[in-house]
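Protocol step 4 of 6: structure prediction from sequence.
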Amino acid sequence: MVRVAKLTPTDALAALRNPLAFIADRWTPDPRTVRRAAFAALVMSVVIVVTGGAVRLTGSGLGCPTWPTCTDDSLTTTRQMGFHGVVEFGNRMLTYVLCAAVGWAIVAARSQKPWRRTLTRLGWAQFWVVMGNAVLGGIVVLVGLNPYTVAAHFLLSTALITVATLTWQRTREGDAAPRPLVGTAVRQLVWCLVAGTALLIAVGTVVTGAGPHAGDSSEVDRIPIDWETVAKLHAVLAWIVVTLTFALWFVLKAVDAPKGPLTRTRVLFLILLAQGVIGYVQYFTHLPEILVGLHMLGSCLIWIGVLRVLLSLRERPSADADELPAPAAEVPTAAARA
């Protein structure tokens, strides 16, 4: 058996003052552990969006009518609140699981040797977004599922997915300055794709705010516009994003781009096609709850896919790689210069 060192009063005081530094002094995670921790935080950021959608689609948005407690007299759901109370309270409890995943990512990043301050900061950024969204979720309940606050709640969740995706990518890279793998024109096309996708997601929240799934069986305010008209605009934007993705794939093939951007663009294109099929089927079948939930999952996967395409346009080798001499094949010879 491995003996565990005794915890001295000095150690205990140090742990209270700076627990992350205390853990980092005694634990060095494998790089794969750091990547897995970041990936777990990303997965949970998607799960919390999907389960939040389940709360709305089952009409459980006010299953717990107040916040931060479930009722004025109970912290948790009660038997009288039935199914809707369980669904709403269950989603609230998943926030703690999300916090645990983000906390694991922070601890793993802080304990990595050498310490990569950027990863730790990204982990803390996720934590504060989670805290802000938890407060906003409480406001959503207190204002009776106002559609504008619901839309903001989803968009802030998308911001969390953005930071989690960036963190996961950074765990797979070094800390050297980024080196572009494609030309300026290709990067500009990808930024157009990012902007188009962001607009697509934003309009999607308007469709949700004006559509029939209000989130509760009681009378809930909706955005006062025709949701079918906005849904058609949403479909047009989706076709624009699909077209941009196909154009990007064609350009990457034409310029003989590295495998990474090509592969990620192809994966994004397939996700977009699947999402389009779900979108049209749910529209013509009058928005069945299961398809709306899948569409929300697809929205998360599309945004992650777009971000991964953007991040694949450059590489960040380890800092040591910049100090290594160039391979012999890349050093011009006298004959070549001649």
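Step 5 (inspection) to follow. The CA atoms of residues 139 and 149 lie 8 Å apart.
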